[in-house]
Amino acid sequence: MTTKIERICPQSLAEAKEIIKQGGVVAMPTETVYGLGGNAFDDNAVKKIFEIKGRPSNNPLIAHVHLDYDLSKIIDYDPPYAQKLREAFLPGPLTLVYPSKNRVSPFVSCGLDTLAVRIPSHAGAQAFLKEVDIPIVAPSANISKHVSPTSAKHVFDDFNGKIPLILDGGECEGGIESTVLDITGEIPLILRPGLITREMIVKVVGACEEYIPDLEKDEKVKSPGVLYQHYTPRCQAFRFASERVKDAKNHINQELEKNKKVAVLCERELVKEFENNGVAVLDLGNTPAEMAARLYGLLREAEDICELLIAVEPKEQNGVMTGVLNRLRRACQEVEIKQN
Ligand code: AMP
Ligand code: MG
């Protein structure tokens, strides 16, 4: 199969619709990352998505719908504060987990009595969702565990020859996946941090908690996706906390002495600390939003240019950075402090 990359236009949208109607999958842009889309009502299409990605079969998918889609077709109950959240943040990078049973293919939510629904703001995504007028499940369009894609080229690099069409909507502005918010309880619960932060949600509905899985005890975790190692570049990748710049430098020097190709990923104000040192410096940016937008592209660049990536965590840790750090920490292993 040849994989076509096409800008979004009436012809490519019609082609995408036809592929979806036939039970196929199409990659589509969103404002967060690119998704691998298929008909949420079609068991085979949903199974195909799991297969192509190599995604664990207990990691549920998010259904994407257009702004005017009638949610009552796919959810059982609309919790009282959900309307406020939708008015404040949608369309946008927020996924709401609603009570929902047997509304879409049972493979979408992997046996959970809930359905995660997102209304993306990306104009190309909206155009595609309008064109098909059905919920489209669309996990990030990367091979499972690899770095999520923020451009059509990233999708092509992972799925060339495996999918017929990538709708090209340019580079994703957001850069990290949506905030996933469980709204089935009295207080909303963040299952995955993202660009819509806890603080922003508290302002709108008064309260919001963050789910911290206990990997030892939780038998049935609320959101299986949070358990998996994720976002990993195909080179060795280690990270140092922001206050350990000196340790990072020592580590880099040791590795350079072994003739390893090393790259360092750090926030802009640290770039000069690492320049002219025999390492490639990947500049994550200045602001949290910029760092979110650049992170995945740079992790993919790292795997092309080095054998070892050393990431230094940015100093800021709150707000949008919660989501960025969540991804960075799962992409790069922590370096143990050696006690002499
Ligand atoms: P991805 O599609 O790769 O962005 O991952 C989707 C994320 O949403 C994963 O972390 C899933 O665990 C989570 N998710 C999807 N559906 C549900 C659901 N019904 N309940 C809880 N989490 C969900
Ligand atoms: Mg993903």
Could you give the topology of this structure?
Blueprint (H helix, E strand, L loop, with lengths): L3 E4 L2 H12 L4 E3 L6 E5 L3 H11 L8 E3 L17 H8 L4 E6 L14 E5 L4 H10 L3 E2 L14 H8 L5 E4 L10 E4 L6 E4 L5 H8 L3 E2 L25 E5 L4 H13 L4 E5 L4 H4 L5 E4 L4 H18 L2 E5 L7 H12 L1 E2 L6
Parallel strand pairs: 1-8, 2-8, 4-6, 5-9, 10-11, 12-15, 12-16, 13-14, 13-15
Antiparallel strand pairs: 2-3, 3-7, 4-7, 5-6, 9-10
Helix pairs in contact: 1-4, 9-10
This protein binds adenosine monophosphate and magnesium ion.
Magnesium ion binds next to loops.
Structure report:
The protein is an alpha/beta fold. It contains 10 helices and 16 strands. An 11-stranded mixed beta sheet has the order 1-8-2-3-7-4-6-5-9-10-11, sandwiched between helices. Strands 14-13-15-12-16 form a 5-stranded parallel beta sheet, sandwiched between helices. Helix 1 packs across helix 4 and helix 9 runs parallel beside helix 10. The radius of gyration is 20 Å and the shape is globular. The structure holds adenosine monophosphate and magnesium ion (MG). The site of magnesium ion has 3 residues, from loops.
Features:
single chain; 340 residues; alpha/beta; eleven-stranded mixed β-sheet; five-stranded parallel β-sheet; 10 helices; binds adenosine monophosphate; binds magnesium ion
